[in-house]
Amino acid sequence: MRLAFLGTPEASVASLRALVGAGHDVAIVITRPDRRRGRGSTTSPSPIKEAALQLGIKVSHDIDDLEGRDIERGVVVAYGSLIRAPVLEQLPMLNVHFSLLPRWRGAAPVEWAILAGDEVTGVSIMTLEVALDTGPVHLARQLSIDDKNASELLEELSQLGATALLEVLASPDLLAHPRAQEGDATYAAKLTTETFHVVPTMEQSLMLRTVRLGRALTLVNGRRLRILRAHAAQEPGTAGTLSVVNGVVVLEGALGAIALDEVQPEGSTPMSAGAWWAGARVDGATAVWS
Question: pTM for the complete prediction?
Answer without folding.
Answer: 0.93
